[in-house]
Amino acid sequence: AQTVTQSQPEMSVQEAETVTLSCTYDTSESDYYLFWYKQPPSRQMILVIRQEAYKQQNATENRFSVNFQKAAKSFSLKISDSQLGDAAMYFCAYNRGAAGNKLTFGGGTRVLVKP
Amino acid sequence: DVKVTQSSRYLVKRTGEKVFLECVQDMDHENMFWYRQDPGLGLRLIYFSYDVKMKEKGDIPEGYSVSREKKERFSLILESASTNQTSMYLCASSLGMREQYFGPGTRLTVT
């Protein structure tokens, strides 16, 4: 079974600085998808960024970028120029690309942003 | 914008009660999901459905059942609620292999 591990329960960052969240996963598949989702306090979960395993280029969405290391099964999220609105729980998720689009989630990392 | 709504934000039920949680999406997505979210455990998949009247067990289906009679609606049923089912329940939907869209969640307390 696939597992997703987020080893940092909580991370703190100063406003305008950079923070990196780690995620490792275990799979025997070669084609799959990886995601980072954000859940602000008392608000709905939203997608931050998505990476297809067959793509070597790391995905980027504005201030959010990933470092995808397929051989190491590592998928870290970098938040640059952190803003107060980035404070949230961040979840790493894996999808093996089969019918039904099932996601396996990590335990989450809480990001605190200090003004 | 895709909208996923859940019938209640907060719910308090007694042990042994039958509980219905409803989820509705407005974007004609074929896939729908029910997760429970517990601190430190992330989100765990209870059941999902990839078509009307079709359902598959997720990772923790015990104590739960689901119903999908219409494409836009996916119900989670707790046949006999127990205290260990106190949790946040999240519904999601997706189109094909695209991102999942989540509802606001239902915080269920079983006393």
Written account of the structure:
The complex is a heterodimer of chains A (115) and B (111). Chain A is an all-beta fold. Chain A is built from no helices and twelve strands. Chain A has strands at residues 3-5, 10-14, 19-21, 24-26, 33-39, 46-52, 60-61, 64-69, 74-79, 88-95, 104-105, 109-114. In chain A, strands 2, 5, 6, 10, 11 and 12 form a six-stranded mixed sheet that branches. A four-stranded antiparallel sheet of chain A has the order 3-9-8-7, with no helix packed on it. In chain A, strands 1-4 form a two-stranded antiparallel ribbon. In chain A, β8 and β9 (74-79) form a beta hairpin. In chain B, 0% of the residues lie in helices and 58% in strands. In chain B, strands 2, 4, 5, 6, 9, 10 and 11 form a seven-stranded mixed sheet that branches. The relative contact order of chain B is 0.34. Chains A and B meet through β5, β6 and β11 of A and β4, β5 and β9 of B.
Topology:
The complex is a heterodimer of chains A (115) and B (111).
Chain A: E1 3-5, E2 10-14, E3 19-21, E4 24-26, E5 33-39, E6 46-52, E7 60-61, E8 64-69, E9 74-79, E10 88-95, E11 104-105, E12 109-114
Parallel strand pairs in A: 2-12
Antiparallel strand pairs in A: 1-4, 3-9, 5-6, 5-10, 7-8, 8-9, 10-11, 10-12
Chain B: E1 4-6, E2 10-13, E3 19-25, E4 31-38, E5 42-51, E6 54-57, E7 64-70, E8 73-78, E9 87-94, E10 101-102, E11 106-110
Parallel strand pairs in B: 2-11
Antiparallel strand pairs in B: 1-3, 3-8, 4-5, 4-9, 5-6, 7-8, 9-10, 9-11
